[in-house]
Write a structure and sequence with these properties.
single chain; about 240 residues; mainly alpha; Serine Threonine Protein Phosphatase 5, Tetratricopeptide repeat; elongated
C-alpha cells in the first residue's frame, strides 16, 4: 500500500500523516504485502520506532505474522533493537503481549529464543521481566534458551538465564540436558557452573541405543501387506 512505500522510503512526515488519516481503519493499517508484512513489520525492519508507536496507537495488530511466521516483536528481538522492543510491548494489551511472547515463528523460535541466539542480553532480560517463558522449548528439537546459550558458548547468557529460573534439568527431545551439551566444548566455566546445579543422572551423556532393541518390522518381504478375502478360511483363487 501507499503506507508501506512511505515507511520503506523512510518518509517520516508522509507516513505520520497517512497514519493519522487512517486511524481506526484496521483493514488498511494491517494490510499485508506479498511477503505478508504489515506497515508495523516494515517500521521495525527499517528501525523507525516512532512510526511503530504511532501505528500501534492507530490500531495496528502486533500479532500478525509475516511469511516467516515472525511478528514485529520477533523481528525487533532478532535485530537487537531494544527501543523497538520497548515500544511494541508498551502499547500491547497484557493478554495480547503474553500470546506474542509465547508465539513461535515457522522455525519454532519464540522472541526469547531469537534474542538469545543473537546474544542480546538486555533484550533477553527485558523479555523475561515481561513474563516470557524462560523454559520454552523449540518445537523441532526441544531446546530451551539455556540449551541455545550453551551451544553458542555464551557464559554471560547462561548466567542470566539461570538467574531468572532456567531449568538446568530440562532435556531436549533427544534427552540432553544443557550440561550434557557442554561436553567437548571449550568454555569450561559454563560446564562448571551447570554441573553444580544439574542432577547426577543428567550429567553423563546418554548411552547409545542398542540396535538389537529395535522392534522387528511388522511385515517381512514375503508377507502380504494387505488383507485378502477369505471364504471358509481359504483365500480366493483367480
Amino acid at each position: 500500500s501507499f503506507l508501506h512505500l512511505s515507511i520503506i522510503h523512510e518518509e517520516k512526515a508522509l507516513s505520520l500523516e497517512v497514519i493519522r488519516q487512517a486511524a481506526g481503519d484496521h483493514a488498511f493499517l494491517n494490510f499485508q504485502n506479498n511477503l505478508s508484512q504489515t506497515p508495523l513489520h516494515l517500521a521495525v525492519i527499517t528501525n523507525q520506532p516512532e512510526i511503530a508507536e504511532h501505528l500501534l496507537k492507530a490500531g495496528c495488530d502486533l500479532e500478525i505474522r509475516d511469511f516467516r511466521g515472525n511478528t514485529p516483536l520477533h523481528i525487533a528481538c532478532q535485530q537487537g533493537s531494544l527501543r523497538s522492543v520497548s515500544v511494541l510491548t508498551q502499547y500491547c494489551q497484557p493478554h495480547h503481549l503474553l500470546a506474542v511472547l509465547q508465539a513461535t515463528n515457522y522455525n519454532g523460535h519464540t522472541c526469547l529464543h531469537l534474542a538469545s541466539i543473537q546474544g542480546y542480553l538486555a533484550i533477553v532480560e527485558y523479555l523475561l521481566s515481561l513474563g516470557a517463558d524462560v523454559n520454552a522449548q523449540e518445537p523441532c528439537n526441544g531446546r530451551t534458551a539455556l540449551h541455545l546459550a550453551v551451544d553458542l558458548q555464551n557464559s554471560d547468557l547462561v548466567s542470566l538465564l539461570v538467574k531468572h529460573g532456567a531449568d538446568v534439568n530440562k532435556v531436549t527431545y533427544q534427552g540432553y540436558s544443557p550440561y550434557q551439551l557442554t561436553w567437548g566444548r571449550d568454555n569450561s566455566s559454563i560446564q562448571e557452573q551447570l554441573k553444580q546445579l544439574t542432577t547426577a543422572d543428567l550429567q553423563m551423556l546418554p548411552e547409545s541405543e542398542d540396535e538389537s532393541s529395535e522392534s522387528e518390522p511388522e511385515f517381512t518381504e514375503d508377507e502380504l501387506i494387505y488383507d485378502d478375502c477369505l471364504i471358509g478360511g481359504r483365500q480366493l483363487a483367480f
